[in-house]
Design goal:
Blueprint lengths: L4 H9 L3 E6 L3 H10 L5 E7 L3 H11 L3 E3 L2 H5 L6 E4 L6 H10 L3 E5 L6 H13 L4 E4 L6 H11 L6 E11 L17 H17 L5 E8 L5 E9 L5 E7 L1 E12 L3 E4 L20 E4 L9 E2 L7 H15 L2 H27 L3 E2 L1
Parallel strand pairs: 1-2, 1-4, 2-3, 4-5, 5-6, 7-10
Antiparallel strand pairs: 7-11, 8-9, 8-15, 9-10, 11-12, 12-13, 13-14
Helix pairs in contact: 2-9, 5-6, 6-10, 8-10
Length: about 350
């Protein structure tokens, strides 16, 4: 249905959310590239601890302004919000600093290294009246909305269990920050945070207890981890993450009346030969209990999860929708508590209660 002219003009008149990027890592380059076509957000500045690196990034990525320190970017009055792609160990410090400067924060996953840090970040955002969002790109894919619609409509009955995995082969392990424990490295915080986010989204709450087993690298990080999560009503989830396996990313959701299978990819494309390698992401549902019931393929709009995420963030900021952000905050707290418990269980070799 065609929108009334007044609604169209009002939406068009909303200025884009002006984003500053705090750091110049490869993921920041991908973020800037993917959100560039958006009318809802605009990357207006970038910062690095090196003036040379900031200037080079800005020139290469077409960003108008650059700053030779993180503090200078936070003080920039032409920046509304920060995209924070720094190493995991720096998320809490710089998210809270951004909040003190009145900047909204879209933070890469995992939000922080533990529940206390996450709570401190959320408290700082509330105190200064800004929004803080943990940015899982797959959460904002249209496919995820379609998956939730299936669950909420009872397409597979009551969810009883989830099996979810994500893994890849780590490139250049000697220099990769994922191998550095002091920077919050390891398979659990990297790939496992995605898996945990899916389990939390499907189950709607944190587990009551977890038990995990890990394989440890010489640097001290977990190179792979598998776990069982038990929920209060007897539901269970199985989690697997790895940095020493072929790329795999899949979840199976088992209900009393059917099954959902998905790849829950961050970035998707239905077009062959996508320039950035984005692929279709499978979502299919079996509406029935017998193996003779065929799976139904669900087709969803595709695109960059970075852009979907940034535009959703811009929408809640423009609407001052603190209720939506609080719902996401509770999910982030549950994810942080689960990751913390999984890490403790893997280190100590026993089940951990949350």
């Amino acid at each position: 249905m065609k929108k009334p002219a007044s609604a169209r003009s009002s939406r068009a008149a909303t200025p884009p959310l002006r984003i500053g990027v705090l750091g110049v890592a490869n993921i920041a380059k991908q973020f800037v590239r993917d959100v560039r076509p958006s009318r809802a957000v605009s990357v207006v500045a970038v910062a690095s601890r090196s003036e040379e690196n900031a200037r080079a990034f800005a020139a290469a990525q077409g960003v108008a302004r650059w700053h030779g320190s993180y503090e200078a970017l936070l003080a920039d009055p032409e920046v509304d919000a920060i995209y924070l792609p720094l190493p995991n160990s720096l998320h809490a410090e710089w998210a809270m600093a951004a909040a003190r400067h009145g900047k909204h924060v879209l933070c890469e996953k995992p939000l922080a290294l533990g529940v206390m840090q996450v709570q401190a970040m959320l408290d700082a955002a509330r105190q200064h009246g800004v929004m803080l969002l943990e940015g899982y790109p797959w959460w904002f894919q249209p496919q995820t909305g379609d998956m939730l619609a299936l669950l909420h409509s009872g397409a597979i009955g009551e969810v009883r269990s989830v099996q979810a995995s994500f893994g890849f082969t780590l490139g250049n392990p000697q220099a990769n920050i994922r191998m550095k424990p002091e920077l919050g490295g390891g398979a659990l915080l990297d790939a496992g945070s995605y898996v945990t986010s899916l389990i939390r989204l499907v189950m709607g709450e944190a587990p009551k207890s977890v038990i995990a087993h890990a394989t440890w690298a010489d640097s001290g990080v977990d190179i792979s981890l598998m776990a069982t999560l038990t929920f209060a009503d007897g539901r269970r989830a199985q989690l697997s993450c790895a940095m020493d396996a072929a790329n795999h990313r899949r979840a199976t959701i088992m209900g009393t009346q059917g099954t959902i299978e998905t790849e829950y990819l961050n970035h998707t494309s239905d077009a062959p030969g996508h320039p950035w390698g984005y692929l279709p992401s499978q979502l299919r549902v079996r509406r029935g209990t017998a193996n003779s019931v065929p799976f139904e393929e669900i087709r969803s709009p595709s695109g960059s999860g970075f852009r979907f995420c940034a535009e959703a963030f811009a929408q809640v900021v423009a609407a001052k929708d603190f209720t939506a952000v609080e719902r996401a905050a509770q999910a982030s707290l549950d994810i942080a508590a689960t990751l913390e418990a999984l890490a403790l269980s893997a280190r100590e070799g026993h089940a951990v209660e949350l």
